[in-house]
Amino acid sequence: MTMTERTAEPAEKDTADCLRQNDHGSQAGGHDGADVRSAEGAEEPESARERANRRWHEILQETRVAQTGVQILFGFLLSVAFTPLFRDLGTFDRTVYVITVVLGAAATGSLIAPVSLHRFLSGQRMKEEVVETAGRLMMCGMVLLALTIGCTLLLILRIVIPGPLAEALAGGVMLWFAICWYALPLHLRRRSQGARKGA
């Protein structure tokens, strides 16, 4: 037997041992996965700390989505005042623009406030209070964002299609926002609460 053959034998043996261990590991992993799935089927109750942490992470994800939209919109609104067309706007359109900018600034403040709130109160053992206040700020910011979008749409439509049609279209979009953002979630919540009471 040559030196090459003698060194190849342990390598082949190690490879075979690894394959056997992987087979056992995958079988065990399959059983573990089934156990995990069965455990996930029955939801375990959350502790107050776990619930606060979960709700805080959910708020952070929601804030990221809303912040992106309001920041882009607010940046657009600020740039409008420096365009040549802005000088030709009438008194009513200028008033709508000022209201829109103020609403956009207020929406930006409300939607970024949870970050500042968390930074100032971090480590103070006030997670529940932070989550509750951040949730209210998010709801306030979403209302202000909806109003900002509606006023922006009204301002643009009055330039493109002057007349009552612009107001009607802007009002229709605002109604759609009210249905999607508020009426539908409230309807689903009431239906869920009714189903739980019936059970």
How would you sum up this structure, described in words?
- The structure is a single chain.
- Helices cover 86% and strands 0% of the residues.
- The protein is mostly helical and 199 residues long.
- The longest helix is centred in the N-terminal third of the chain and has 39 residues, at 3-41.
- It is flat, with a radius of gyration of 29 Å.
- The N and C termini lie far apart (77 Å).
- The model is unreliable at 1-39 (pLDDT under 50).
Question: Which features characterize this protein?
Answer:
flat, disordered N terminus, 199 residues
Please identify the structural class as seen in this structure: mainly alpha
Number of helices: 5
Instruction: Give the integer mean of the pLDDT values.
Output: 77
Unreliable stretches covering 5 or more consecutive residues? 1-39
Q: Please state the CA-atom Rg, rounded to the nearest Å.
A: 29 Å
Q: Tally of extended strands?
A: 0
How would a textbook summarize the main sheet?
none
Q: What is the structure about, briefly put?
A:
By secondary structure, the protein is mainly α. The protein is 86% helix and 0% strand.
